[in-house]
Amino acid sequence: MSKIKVVQWTTGVVGKPSVRAIVAHPLMELVGCYCHATDKVGQDVGTLCGMEPLGIKATNDIDALLTLKPDCVCYMPQFPNIDEMEKILASGCDIVSTAYFMTGTQFGKDEVARLRAATIKGGSSIYGGGVNPGHANIFALVASAGCSRIDKISVLESVDATPYESAGTWEAIGFGLRVDDPAAPPLAERAMPSFKEAVEMMANALKIEVDEIRFDVEYAAATEDVDLGYMKIGKGCISGLRCCWSARVKGKAVIELKVAWKLGTKLEPNWPVEEGWLIEIEGVPNIRCKYQQTGGTRDFDPATLTAMPMIHAIPHVFAAAPGIITADQLPMVTGAYCVNV
């Protein structure tokens, strides 16, 4: 059996563990790598990812990468680009993506139609996720199978996110703005569209007809100037947020996807955090379970937790029918080939 040929798209926070996982996977072969930054062009991908040289040079030439006839692109920029994705899919190459994409509804009907047409033309598939949105939502859906009645199902990501060293990510959400800046709430909602898409995916999997999905957010302010090393936050500016996407039927919240993130410890209110993902189901029976990485904040590795669900999904996406695929349409994705024996 020939290996699945994979191109890595970017070598940022999530891209680095992705490259390491692809290289280690017995069913996959890394054949190329795309980078946005011009100073990375021509550099060895292994060197860019803190590994031994791999003999593969990073490039910003999309056509050159597609000439390699990859089977899959691990698409991991900060935000998705419809033109790029359409071109990749139309070439016959699958996509697994952590770039704020699950269903594509955030882009509108015309753009979704473009992506679907590209998958049909290329006979390809696209699957989006990560740890959250993505893996945590799947965890909740699996837990729901133990219920005979579900009144509400909720997923909460609650962490001190300081170790996630991506200033661009946090600034795009509104961290660093004044807490009373009226631009902050709509900025947060626009910057995290895949959370809404995750709620849509869960509703579809649970066969719920949703009336609306509502977004609510509140903020915590830095009590002093904060220097995180990769980002500075001024006193009185956003250093924490709690937000919720709630799917509602007849005015009642039936699905909630919530996040509570803080950067640093000098903020007010200084909300306690779960340091993980909390799944709660109200129904018959009530269910509560926690998905948590152990080892403490210093060892917290959100990048690997984000990348690995997508890497493990590649063989299933490769075998899937063309189209935009959601988690409820795939076989069970496990940590196959990762057991250390």
The strand count comes to 16
Count up the domains.
Answer: 2
The separation of the N and C termini measures: 23 Å
| Sequence stretches where pLDDT stays below 50 over 5 or more residues | none
The strands making up the biggest β-sheet line up spatially as 3-2-1-4-5-6-16
Can you count the helices?
10
Give the rounded overall mean pLDDT: 95
Shape: globular
- The helicity comes to 25-40%
Strand content: 25-35%
Structural class: alpha/beta
Radius of gyration: 20 Å
**Series of secondary-structure elements, N-terminal to C-terminal:** EHEHEHEHEHEHEHHHEEEEEEEEHE
Biggest beta-sheet profile: 7 strands, parallel
Protein model, in words:
The radius of gyration is 20 Å and the shape is globular. The longest helix is centred in the last third of the chain and has 18 residues, at 302-319. Helix 6 (131-144) packs parallel to helix 9 (193-205). The two termini are 23 Å apart. Strand 14 and strand 15 (287-291) form a beta hairpin. It has helices at 15-24, 45-48, 62-67, 82-90, 109-122, 131-144, 167-173, 184-191, 193-205, 302-319, and strands at residues 4-9, 28-34, 58-59, 72-75, 94-97, 125-128, 149-160, 212-222, 226-227, 232-233, 238-249, 252-262, 267-268, 276-284, 287-291, 323-325. The protein is α/β, with parallel strands linked by helices and 341 residues long. The strands form 3 sheets. Strands 3-2-1-4-5-6-16 form a 7-stranded parallel sheet, with helices on both faces. The protein has a 7-stranded mixed sheet with strand order 13-8-11-12-7-14-15. It folds into 2 domains: 4-128 and 303-329, Rossmann fold; 132-293.
